[in-house]
């Protein structure tokens, strides 16, 4: 049997689900045109189905008169139409006719666009006709596999550079022809590229294509595209052009070379930092294709490619100049958090006190958490108290003082509090944890989803919990027993938002598939779906009377629907960017919306009139909104790490709650082990923590851009910090003030390290150089030049201070003579940029971690020979560190884990699983009792390793 979703062959007829993609096989076989069905007055005859998607079914068929095989694509949107059992035609319900006709027009446009084009790398259209209340597109029958399938077959899901060159050359040629005809594809991805046995590379599926000078403007678009590959202008319904296809081709190029996609444009728009780390000129090609601003990209696809392709040698490598890195946006300072308290448990969520750790974290040796992480959900209990769920767990805050009354340490991507305030649910990966908020006790954990949980919500009576997941399903759970009651299937992509109706009978879900669906809670049956959205449905909310449903989506749109009929009531537009959160006030008078444009808009829920815009968040997205029970206060939680409080009557800013943290880049122990310095991304501040008490002591402010690296001097008197503002700063630890600024680098400073005697400071930058500084005078002593790619990610002195090692994006670690500045040797493996290097305490060995490699490598410093590999991580390794006695090596990885190794035998001793995002930095305390790990979730964790 064949899977019509992923095209996997040879599946047993007894299988209910595809072993490759998980699709329900019987459902895919329903409502197909029967074999030998004839179309267009007996011109074509259907043989069997080849595949199906949300809007169509593709068949193998043949032209009866010519006896020629063809492929026929039938327009059949399953959610909008039904197959008539007698004649095979489609019937469309009255309330879905408009949408059906809109997408039928798009289907016909795809056929007409393809018919205009004639190119060996474009599928050839032979016929287009309408009948049976639908339309059919007849194309040449192509065999082979998709590029996606070829990538899946390769180690690391990446291709040899020469193969990449062949594919991109064909695609560029095909796209140049379409651009010349005034057509833009706008959905370039591996599944839309067919590789035939004859060697043809064919671009298929022009369903998202648009013609010259198209601007969507304020009207709704019927275009389909893939958000993971799409440029910002396509997502935002702005003018598109050849630059749009170049962006998607750049995303595809990076994926073929590395096995991974760059962050989607939406993630980068809300502040996720990224830039390519490739060999030239792949680096230059990708970097020039992927600026977020369309006018910063090339506008001629042939010129973009041919300039570099002309220099390709027989091995597939290319030479060209390095393009400059884009200038970062300045991040505002994050205010200092209030101190927390801890005491014994009480009788209710308000009386509870203490610091409660997830038992499975305690079992791994987790001792303390520094930083609460990025805000995910906010719940106002009254005008004085709020529960904030973040990536590090949940906390109850006194809003007047900013004091945390209790904290629950449980890594989480989403959280929910029952209406009676007794239960807390936190979702981490595929697991959901229940915590009793009267005692702080963890009650149970439940599992069932096959991929990460995005959203959880309690029913009004607290008896049910709904969860939405990346596995495309919703699940309903009994909160008392933890038993799964229903699995709700229908969404075709990740489920990102959920809401119960006030009576608890209906559940609404929003998805990345751009639909919102309503479900009967008792039976689990889908009631209906709303397909008007053209972007991800980020948030859904019911009005207090249950009659109106609000949904937040992009571009910059808030929708209101009649809950009972599914009819659109109105479309509200005031935001400049995508709406991320919506909420009704308890009395139903107000509707609030939060957006990527950093603002909150308050609406009159009855009339849809904009009342006021609330501005105060400094950057990034407003991800969550919550009204107080009396409706007088609105809280907004943002990725700028603050919760802001607003007077709903006047719009006045009542204050903010600070203390949540963004992605952490670097941590360092003071030599006596008492203090921990933490540098965070999107943060211009170095935070100093008391390790024993877990309290933040001080903030060191002065950098004008993000701080990338920190290091203590051996005597503990000084702290050095390297920043994207191109400076290194020295801080006096006794006085807590800046001592001096070291200037000279012409690009971001990624790494800093003191020599063992404390007299020298080394810094690695994005300007190709490592620089040595005199700590006392601040004078630059020398530059170490030799790396062939700009970024020097890491620097480390040997224990005797004679040598300096530097790891770069040129795939090498280089060893330098500190006195002369002479390069002594290179340690090289084609594993991508060297993100981290560390000397063993005896100076004989060097550990390195490569950015595109899941392996830690140990090298002989004297000979440069690779001694052994430490394998176990399932994603690239970001950081390595030796224990002070040299017996152990720690590594932090993008697989969200920290691993501890025996440095002699290379045996893995322990895995620490407490982070929800990549581990960016690891370090041992000077007494070797503790291991600290920092993560891009904004949390630093302290692990007890004394007994290992």
UniProtKB/TrEMBL annotation:
It comes from the Bacteria. Residues 315-344 are annotated as: Disordered. One of its GO terms (molecular function) is protein serine/threonine kinase activity. SMART domains: S_TKc (SM00220), WD40 (SM00320). SUPFAM superfamilies: Protein kinase-like (PK-like) (SSF56112), WD40 repeat-like (SSF50978). Keywords: ATP-binding, Kinase, Nucleotide-binding, Repeat, Serine/threonine-protein kinase, Transferase, WD repeat. Pfam families: Pkinase, WD40. Coiled coil: none annotated. InterPro entries: Kinase-like_dom_sf, Prot_kinase_dom, Protein_kinase_ATP_BS, Ser/Thr_kinase_AS, WD40/YVTN_repeat-like_dom_sf, WD40_PAC1, WD40_repeat_CS, WD40_repeat_dom_sf. WD repeats lie at residues 446-487, 488-529, 530-571, 572-613, 622-656, 657-699, 700-741, 742-783, 792-826, 827-869, 870-911, 912-948. Residues 325-336 have a biased composition (Pro residues). This is Serine/threonine protein kinase. It comes from Laspinema olomoucense D3b.
């Amino acid at each position: 049997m064949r899977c019509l979703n992923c095209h996997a062959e040879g599946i047993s007829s007894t299988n209910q689900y595809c072993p490759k993609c998980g699709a329900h096989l019987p459902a895919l076989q329903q409502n197909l045109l029967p074999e030998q069905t004839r179309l267009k007055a007996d011109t074509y005859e259907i043989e069997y189905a080849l595949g199906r998607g949300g809007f169509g079914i593709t068949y193998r068929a043949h032209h009866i008169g010519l006896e020629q095989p063809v492929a026929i694509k039938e327009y059949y949107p399953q959610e909008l139409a039904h197959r008539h059992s007698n004649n095979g035609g489609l019937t469309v319900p009255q309330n879905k006719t408009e949408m059906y006709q809109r997408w039928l027009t798009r289907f016909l446009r795809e056929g007409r666009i393809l018919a205009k084009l004639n190119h060996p790398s474009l599928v050839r259209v032979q016929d287009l006709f309408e009948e049976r209340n639908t339309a059919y597109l007849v194309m040449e029958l192509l065999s082979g596999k998709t590029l996606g399938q070829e990538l899946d077959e390769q180690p690391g899901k990446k291709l040899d550079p020469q193969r990449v060159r062949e594919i991109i050359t064909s695609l560029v040629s095909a796209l140049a022809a379409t651009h010349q005809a005034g057509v833009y594809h706008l959905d370039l991805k591996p599944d839309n590229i067919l590789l035939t046995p004859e060697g043809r590379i064919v671009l298929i599926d022009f369903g998202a294509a648009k013609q010259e000078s198209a601007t969507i403007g304020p009207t709704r678009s019927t275009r389909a595209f893939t958000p993971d590959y799409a440029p910002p202008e396509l997502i935002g319904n702005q003018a598109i052009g050849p630059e749009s296809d170049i962006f998607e081709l750049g995303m595809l190029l990076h994926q073929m070379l590395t096995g991974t996609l760059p962050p989607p444009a939406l993630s980068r728009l809300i502040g996720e930092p990224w830039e390519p780390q490739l060999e030239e000129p792949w680096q230059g090609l990708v970097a020039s294709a992927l600026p977020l601003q369309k006018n910063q990209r090339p506008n001629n696809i042939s010129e973009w490619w041919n300039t570099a392709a002309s220099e390709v040698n027989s091995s597939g490598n290319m030479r060209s100049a390095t393009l400059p890195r884009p200038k970062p946006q300045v991040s505002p300072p994050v205010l200092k958090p209030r101190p927390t308290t801890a005491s014994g448990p009480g009788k209710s969520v308000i009386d509870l006190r203490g610091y409660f750790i997830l038992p499975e974290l305690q079992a791994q040796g987790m001792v303390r958490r520094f930083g609460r992480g990025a805000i995910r959900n906010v719940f106002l209990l009254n005008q004085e108290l709020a529960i904030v769920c973040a990536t590090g767990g949940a906390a109850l805050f006194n809003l007047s003082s900013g004091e945390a009354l209790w904290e629950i340490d449980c890594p989480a991507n989403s959280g929910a509090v029952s209406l009676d305030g007794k239960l807390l649910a936190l979702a981490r990966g595929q697991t959901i944890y229940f915590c009793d908020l009267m005692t702080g006790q963890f009650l149970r954990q439940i599992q069932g989803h096959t991929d990460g949980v995005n959203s959880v919500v309690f029913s009004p009576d607290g008896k049910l919990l709904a969860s939405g997941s990346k596995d495309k399903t919703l699940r309903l759970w009994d909160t008392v027993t933890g038993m799964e009651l229903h699995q709700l299937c229908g969404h075709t992509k990740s489920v990102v938002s959920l809401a119960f109706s006030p009576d608890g009978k209906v559940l609404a879900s929003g998805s990345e598939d751009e639909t919102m669906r309503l479900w009967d809670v008792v039976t689990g049956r889908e009631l209906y779906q709303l397909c008007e959205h053209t972007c991800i449905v980020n948030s859904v909310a019911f009005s207090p009377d249950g009659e109106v449903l609000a949904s937040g989506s992009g571009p910059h749109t808030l929708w209101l629907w009649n809950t009972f009929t599914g009819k659109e009531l109105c479309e509200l537009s005031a935001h400049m960017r995508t709406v991320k959160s919506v909420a009704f006030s308890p009395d139903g008078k107000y509707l609030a919306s939060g957006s990527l444009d950093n603002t909150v808009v308050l609406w009159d829920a009855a009339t849809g009139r904009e009342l006021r815009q609330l501005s105060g968040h400094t950057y990034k997205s407003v991800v969550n909104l919550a009204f107080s029970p009396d409706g007088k206060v609105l809280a907004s939680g943002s990725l700028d790490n603050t919760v802001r409080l607003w007077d709903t009557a006047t719009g006045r800013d009542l204050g903010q709650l600070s203390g949540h943290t963004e992605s952490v880049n670097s941590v360092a122990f003071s030599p006596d082990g008492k203090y921990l310095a933490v540098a965070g991304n999107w943060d211009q501040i170095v935070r100093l923590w008391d390790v024993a008490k877990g309290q933040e002591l001080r903030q060191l402010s002065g950098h004008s851009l993000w701080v990338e690296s920190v290091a203590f001097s051996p005597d503990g008197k000084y702290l050095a910090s390297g920043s994207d503002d191109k400076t290194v700063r020295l801080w006096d630890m006794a006085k807590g003030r800046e001592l001096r600024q070291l200037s000279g680098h012409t690009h971001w400073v990624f790494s800093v390290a003191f020599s063992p005697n404390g007299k020298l400071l080394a810094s690695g930058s994005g300007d190709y150089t490592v620089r040595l500084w005199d700590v006392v005078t601040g004078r630059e002593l020398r530059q170490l030049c030799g790396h062939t790619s700009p970024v020097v990610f890491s620097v480390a002195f040997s224990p005797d201070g004679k040598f300096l090692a530097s790891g770069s994006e040129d795939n090498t670690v280089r060893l330098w003579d500190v006195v002369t500045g002479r390069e002594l040797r290179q340690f090289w493996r084609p594993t991508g940029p060297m993100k981290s290097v560390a000397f063993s305490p005896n100076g004989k060995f060097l550990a390195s971690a490569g950015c595109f490699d899941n392996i830690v490598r140990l090298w002989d410093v004297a000979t440069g020979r690779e001694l052994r590999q430490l394998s176990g991580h399932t994603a690239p390794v970001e950081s390595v560190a030796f224990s002070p006695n040299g017996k152990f090596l720690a590594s932090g990885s993008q697989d969200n884990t920290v691993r501890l190794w025996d440095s002699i035998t290379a045996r893995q001793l322990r895995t620490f699983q407490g982070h929800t995002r990549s581990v960016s930095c690891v370090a041992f305390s000077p007494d070797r009792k503790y291991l600290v790990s920092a993560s891009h979730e904004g949390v630093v964790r302290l692990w007890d390793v004394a007994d290992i």
